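[Primary structure, fold]
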Amino acid sequence: MHLTNTADTTVHAHQHTQTQPEVGVKSSKGTKPLRNPCNLCQSVRAILKRPKTGQQLCKECFYHVFETEIHNTIVDNKLFKKGDRVAIGASGGKDSTVLAYVMKLLNDRYNYGLDLVLLSIDEGITGYRDDSLETVKRNRDQYQIPLLIISYKDLYGWSMDDIVKEIGRKNNCTFCGVFRRQALDRGAIMLNVDHIVTGHNADDIAETVLMNILRGDLPRLQRCTSIITNDTSDDASGIETSKILRSKPFKYTYEKEIVMYAYFKKLDYFSTECIYSPNAYRGYARVFLKELEAIRRTAIVDIIHSGEALSASVQANESTKLPTMTNCTRCGYISSNELCKACLLLEGLNKGLPQLGIGHTTKIRRIHEAAANVAEGLSLSSTSLLSPTTALSGNGAESATVVTAVASSSTSSTLEERGKTVTHIKDLARLETMPSLQTTS
């Protein structure tokens, strides 16, 4: 049974618990009009201007509007059912801290009947995540919500600090995103939860819509604009689906209003940005979005609605055949391929070829296999092993192999020569972005 909205679904002026003063200030000459009154209650001076609507509100009316809009989003979209066990993705940042506070508040106020727990992922980023997790632990005590912390090191054998040392900062967000999504799922299974809620806000979703449009990735619009989903893939070659639902109660909530709410409520949160993300592609979309918002305050929600409409149009005009789902042969995680994305990335890290799981995976895997064969001293036929490549076809299928590794079956290579060949092939693996690669004997 889904939750029903027992409250008025329209946002109205907050009824202050204290006796309402007359509108104005009394003096010997009579009542003077109240300067800059709250647009809703008209009885208290406004102290803020809502970024989303431009309304001038007092503190209590802002709290009421903020909380009621999130409640309406939850109820109107039927995000939960009574009795659901819900994990709140907690990072210690403003979004997840406000989400945890508001989820507990609304659960108690409207009797959602949810069993709430906090789930945190420790990526292993010194000076960032270790500090933010201290904030999460304080939130656990402040809100009296159980907490589970899962680390990349325990799950994968690598921390993000280790990964960045190995690969640099160019593709580190790809590794972190894939590992984080799977870690959240694994944590949810450990907690036996039905649902994960995350603090993705309206700004985050609008940025993702812009990124997908700029990349021409229309099929992903559905996933990024859906308020509830069980899609956890970041792999363009397929869709990996989890049985655990995910939702974004802050889908229509502006980031600035989340910050204002946290500030006025004096919530305890961690405000430092990830040290490895300054050059992430999302940053460019964020800057552009802020410029649009400065011109038009509704730009953020307008972009979200545009993404929803465009997504619906794509679905209506295209029939996308989803890949057959199976389980990863290595870790058992649900996947559309023999190996899930996380295992592909781990394979590359563990074998010194971090690009193995990025980009044209099939090409890189064949390069790696060729390197392994040479390292083992196997003779390679110039006509049967690998032939010159062509670019990927439009549907993403491999149309040819990647590199020609020529070694005569009648010629015995020295160990030094074999080592040079292996090094050369590994160098080629780092050039996976090129449409074609070819070597000669």
Q: What stands out?
A: The longest helix spans residues 172-191. Residues 77-321 form a domain with the Rossmann fold fold (CATH 3.40.50.620).
